[in-house]
Write a structure and sequence with these properties.
With 479 residues, this protein is α/β, with parallel strands linked by helices. It has two domains: 142 residues, Golgi alpha-mannosidase II (Immunoglobulin-like); 321 residues, Glycosidases (TIM Barrel, Alpha-Beta Barrel). It is 24% helix and 27% strand. It has ten helices and 28 strands. Strands 3, 18, 20, 21, 23, 24, 25, 26 and 28 form a nine-stranded antiparallel β-sheet that branches. The protein has an eight-stranded parallel beta barrel with strand order 4-5-8-11-12-13-15-17, surrounded by six helices. The radius of gyration is 22 Å and the shape is globular. The two termini are 40 Å apart.
């Protein structure tokens, strides 16, 4: 959910600037600006897709789907959504016989399929439990116990549990103290059960941190004891409604900046109740209500997604979980053909190149260029400790030159992502340094670590984004 934002016309924030005027880019080498989780980027699967759509066209036994998922591994998989609040776990040896419509039953076979797929591709599952199965406005935990019994019997590993999806928008009134009581029930259930003793508890998964309804709920939940029932504080974020989405909204710096207030509130409230409490962005994408067709699944969506990764990492969010891997217009895979959408390739390249240490970038903050920097992910064999990675967006209508005077003569390895074909920003195809990104004939992931090499400066064409790695930067903070 999100509050709609009024935007100006595209031309009013796309300045004309010539390539001859370079922008000097530096980093602060004295201290890191932040630290993310090693698995900073995760993905979701909506329970609605699994239960009511019967997984759609996502054949979890196909090698193509496994290859696409394994390429993002290791990462967190969050399974939840609105349906998770009401669903019944139809597993063997139930103690909960609460009658539930068939279309709200998660069968044992689907639970098996989900866990086996997650295990096989190397994902760490976080599962949202049915908070709105309530008696006298108290969570009724016996069906969750049934699921845990079955899960432990089958030997499935659940990395974390949530309880309730976006309680500030529950269809029934559950106050923050009432939800705290429910979480303390869950905490006791999970932590006292030996099989799940290492499983995390995450919450409260607030929908809106931009209005009092959401951020006051989040604050009160933590203040009135929720801090003792969770390991990580979570909130959700979308920039605007899918129904009113327009192309220019995806490249508007004002909309990009709008996430700062939700982040600041989420982090400060969490630290107010428990110092150094880690905050996760538990569900996020461009626009809520399934994403905007022809926009959320196209090249242009990458601007908001890449900028969100930069803003969250820089301002204290430890994990960001993308809605979704498969299922809707904002998914990384197309619903019908399960081929990668542009944001899949952007996400994969980000995970390969960007490390967990965040660096502070120093440049003209009034510029139409948005740029972030991290120590490079040295799990890619090509890069060694001391390397740094920049990721940047050119929002202007002209090419810009980025200069790196701090590293004179250094090789600059460039990964430029551009739309393919005449559709421009609304293209479903994306090229990396001019080569179309697509699966091989054997449905394998192509090698992405093939940069172009430049020195001193990098030219970024109008309305494009990409990455720049300086392999021999020898930044002490990254050693």
């Amino acid at each position: 959910m999100a509050v709609p934002i009024v935007v100006c016309s595209l031309l009013s924030f796309l300045p004309v600037h010539g390539a001859g005027n370079g922008i000097p880019i530096k980093i602060d080498t004295n201290k890191i600006a932040g630290q993310t989780h090693d698995m900073f980027v995760g993905v979701t699967l909506d329970l609605e897709t699994i239960v009511r759509s019967n997984w759609g066209y996502m054949n979890t036994s196909s090698q193509k789907i496994k290859n696409l998922a394994q390429a993002l591994s290791p990462c967190f998989l969050r399974v939840g959504g609105t349906m998770s609040d009401h669903v019944h776990y139809d597993v063997p040896y139930q103690t909960d016989v609460w009658p539930t419509p068939e279309d709200k039953n998660l069968t044992a076979s689907n639970w098996d399929r989900l866990n086996i797929f997650s295990r096989d591709v190397g994902w760490k599952m976080i599962f949202g439990l049915n908070a709105l199965r309530r008696i006298n406005n108290v969570w009724f935990p016996f069906n969750a116990r049934d699921l845990m019994n079955y899960t432990s019997y089958k030997g499935y590993n659940i990395t974390g549990f949530e309880l309730g999806n976006e309680p500030d928008y529950f269809p029934v009134n559950v106050t923050p103290p009432e939800l705290v009581f429910d979480f303390l029930q869950l905490y006791g259930l999970v932590k006292e059960w030996p099989y799940f003793s290492n499983s995390l508890i995450l919450g409260p998964d607030i929908a809106e941190m931009v209005n009092p309804r959401g951020y006051q709920y989040y604050h009160e939940f933590l203040k009135y004891g929720g801090r003792d029932g969770i390991d990580y504080a979570t909130f959700h974020h979308y920039y605007f409604a899918s129904g009113g989405a327009k192309l220019e909204m995806f490249i508007n710096p004002g909309i990009m900046n709008s996430i700062w207030v939700p982040i600041q509130r989420a982090v400060s409230y969490a630290n107010e109740t428990v110092p150094h409490r880690k905050v996760w962005l538990g569900e996020t994408s461009t626009s809520y209500n399934q994403g905007a067709p022809g926009l959320s699944d196209r090249y242009v969506a990458g601007f908001l997604w890449l900028d969100k990764l930069g803003m969250t990492a820089k301002h204290g969010v430890e994990v960001v979980i993308r809605q979704s891997f498969y299922g809707e217009n904002y998914s990384l895979l197309d619903f019908n053909d399960t081929n990668p959408n542009p944001d899949y390739w952007l996400t994969l390249l980000y995970m390969k190149l960007v490390g967990s240490k965040v660096l502070n970038v120093i440049f003209d903050s009034s510029s139409y260029v948005r740029i972030y920097a991290h120590c490079t992910n040295t799990k890619v064999p090509k890069y060694q400790k001391g390397s740094i990675t920049f990721y940047t967006m050119n929002l202007s209508n002209a090419t810009v030159d980025l200069l790196f005077p701090q590293f004179p003569g250094a090789e600059l390895e460039v990964y430029l992502l551009q739309p393919k074909g005449t559709q421009g920003l609304t293209s479903r195809g994306v090229t990396l340094n001019g080569v179309l990104l697509e699966l091989t004939e054997e449905d394998e992931i192509p090698n992405l670590i093939i940069p172009t090499v430049q020195t001193d400066s990098v030219s970024f064409p109008s309305l494009t984004f990409g990455f720049i790695v300086i392999p021999m930067a020898n930044v002490t903070l990254c050693l």
